[in-house]
Each structure stands twice: as structure tokens, then as C-alpha cells.
Design brief:
This protein is mostly helical. The chain has helices at about 1-30, 35-55, 60-85, 95-100, 110, 145-190, and strands at about 115-120, 135. The protein has a two-stranded antiparallel sheet with strand order 1-2. This is Sodium/potassium-transporting ATPase subunit beta-1-interacting protein.
Length: about 210
């Protein structure tokens, strides 16, 4: 019963992770955030493998999923530090999230709740022709705090998934050990005396 409830809870957590990271993947695609797109894609694959291992009693898959969650939590902590500009980090850097391929920022920067986007015309004389300059006002929450909230949710789900993954691996290992013990008991257990048939030899007389 404990293994079933643990596996069901872990499967539910994996489902929540898939839903939340797919939403995040769409947002990152819209914002051309190439580094998060690649990491999110890898996370989706490993969560699916972890879900498969949970359903099919594959402890190696669940162990690999748990190990990846440590990396995933570390990445999300970095994202939080990046958007909060901890230390020398700057959220205006193009190299970290977009590999310096574009000048795009978070999709939430222009599409956050209550944000009003106003084009600046005419653009500055030094501005490249293929870029538009806008003014953003009225946002109920700054985009960096929305990104921090998303990463915090991912850390929370990953922490819960890691705890339950370790619990499920422990339960599956215990069940495998108990099955091995029962199988060994049946193979080498005590066998009661068996009935044997006795043949009584009778003399035979042949008539001439």
C-alpha cells in the first residue's frame, strides 16, 4: 500500500512538472530564450523517463530522474539570481539566455499583467533599423519577479519530486529484496516426507 501511494504521488508530481515546464517552454520560445529552451527540453525528456520508471517499477530510471532534479534545482536557482542581478549578474546580458543571438528579453517584459506597450517614434538616430524601441508602463508586476516566481515553483516541485523519488526507490528495492527472500525460501525450504510405492514380489510358477 505504501509503495502504491508513494508511486501515485510521484506520478502526480511528474505530471505537474510536465504541465508547468511546457507552459514555461512556450513562454521561452516566445521570448527567444535559447538556453532555457534547451534545458527545458532536456527536463521534459527526463521527467517522462522518471514517470515511466515510476509506473513500470524501474528504480534506475527513478534514480536518474532524482539525480537530474539536483541539476534542475541548481539551474533554477541561477535563473533567480540572474533576474535579481545577484553579484555581477545582469539581466540585460544577451549572452547568458540567448547565446548572444538576439536582443530579446523575457516575454513577460511586454506581456505582463497590466503592461501597456507604447512605440517610441521617432527612434533614436543611433538605433539599428531592424529594431523597434518601446516604452512599457502600467505593469502590475515587473517581469523579473514573474520569472522568479516561475523558477521558485520549479524548485518546489523538484524538491518534492526528489524526496518522493528517493522514497519510491527505497520501497521498490525493499519489495525486490522480499521477493528474492520468498523465492529462496521456496527453493530451499523444508520438504515433508513423500509417500513411496512398495512393490511386493510374488513367485511365478510356469507350467510345462
Amino acid at each position: 500500500m505504501g509503495c502504491c501511494s508513494g508511486r501515485c504521488t510521484l506520478a502526480f508530481i511528474c505530471g505537474m512538472q510536465l504541465v508547468s515546464v511546457l507552459e514555461r517552454q512556450v513562454i521561452d520560445f516566445l521570448g527567444y530564450q535559447w538556453a532555457p529552451i534547451l534545458i527545458n527540453f532536456l527536463h521534459i525528456i527526463i521527467v517522462i523517463l522518471g514517470l515511466f520508471g515510476t509506473i513500470q517499477f524501474r528504480p534506475r530510471y527513478v534514480t536518474g530522474y532524482a539525480a537530474w532534479l539536483v541539476v534542475w534545482m541548481t539551474w533554477n536557482v541561477f535563473i533567480i539570481c540572474f533576474y535579481l542581478e545577484v553579484g555581477d549578474l545582469s539581466r540585460d546580458s544577451d549572452l547568458v539566455l540567448t547565446f548572444n543571438l538576439s536582443m530579446h528579453r523575457s516575454w513577460w517584459m511586454e506581456n505582463g499583467p497590466g503592461c501597456r506597450v507604447t512605440p517610441i517614434t521617432p527612434p533614436p538616430s543611433w538605433a539599428p533599423e531592424d529594431h523597434r524601441y518601446i516604452s512599457i508602463s502600467g505593469c502590475l508586476m515587473d517581469f523579473q519577479f514573474i520569472e522568479v516566481a516561475h523558477s521558485s515553483l520549479q524548485i518546489l516541485l523538484a524538491l518534492m519530486g526528489f524526496i518522493y523519488a528517493c522514497y519510491v526507490v527505497k520501497l521498490i528495492s525493499e519489495e525486490e529484496d522480499s521477493f528474492d527472500f520468498i523465492g529462496g525460501f521456496d527453493s530451499y525450504g523444508y520438504q515433508g516426507p513423500q509417500k513411496t510405492s512398495h512393490l511386493q514380489l510374488q513367485p511365478m510358477y510356469m507350467s510345462k
